[in-house]
Amino acid sequence: MDTTSNKFNISIEYCVPCDYSDYAIKETTSLIKNFQHNINQLALITGSKGVFDIKVDDEIIFSKTVLNRYPNTGELVDLIKEKKGL
């Protein structure tokens, strides 16, 4: 199976003062399990002011600031599958 054409970058920016690290780690684990053959780069970015944003190839696909909640279980996986046509 050729997955080189489906490689993408993911970043998770999370609020350090709010200690959102557990959420960031949980989502990182899920994304690695589901997309390890497709991820070119996965970055955890420390932030502040309540941020919890997930980007795929520099496009925000989930923002806690906008939605006022954390992602539901499996939500990021579904969003990425839809965005990347997987």
Summarize the structure.
The chain is α+β, with helices and mostly antiparallel strands and 86 residues long. The chain has three helices and four strands, in the order E-H-E-E-E-H-H. It is 34% helix and 31% strand.
Overall description:
By secondary structure, the protein is of the alpha+beta class. It is built from 3 helices and 4 strands. The protein has a 4-stranded mixed sheet with strand order 2-1-3-4. The longest helix is centred in the N-terminal third of the chain and has 15 residues. The chain is globular and about 35 Å long.
Report the sheet with the most strands, covering strand number, pairing sense and barrel closure.
4 strands, mixed
- SS-based class: alpha+beta
Q: How do the strands of the widest beta sheet line up side by side?
A: 2-1-3-4
The overall strand count is: 4
Output the radius of gyration.
Answer: 13 Å
The helix/strand series, from N terminus to C terminus, equals EHEEEHH
Number of helices in the DSSP assignment: 3
Average the pLDDT over all residues and give the rounded result.
93
Query: What portion of the residues fall into strands of 2 or more residues?
Result: 25-35%
| Net shape | globular
How far apart lie the N and C ends? Answer: 13 Å
Q: In percent, how helical is the residue content? A: 25-40%
**Unreliable parts:** none
